[in-house]
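Task card 7
Instruction: Convert sequence to structure tokens.
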Amino acid sequence: MCEVTQGTHPLTFMWLKNNEPLSNSQDNYQILPGHHVSTFFIEKLSEMNSGTYTCIVSNNYGSDNISVTLNVQGKQISDIFNQFLLFFEHLSSCFYV
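Output:
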């Protein structure tokens, strides 16, 4: 989750994986926009989801970003455990743009 605590609106959020843009149209990802926040979910976590994820927030005055590296190991994760691994669910970042 990317959260902006201060900044001039409108704010634009963008999510990247390994420096490539992500969108809701891609399988397995869900991006939920908000006024001050953007939340990114991985529906079914697998080794293919390993990589560096970046949230970029921008407005007319500039931009800021935060990145985190996700390393998924193993061949299968149960559906119950998967629900607890929703990426970025509890990761909150403050941006000052």
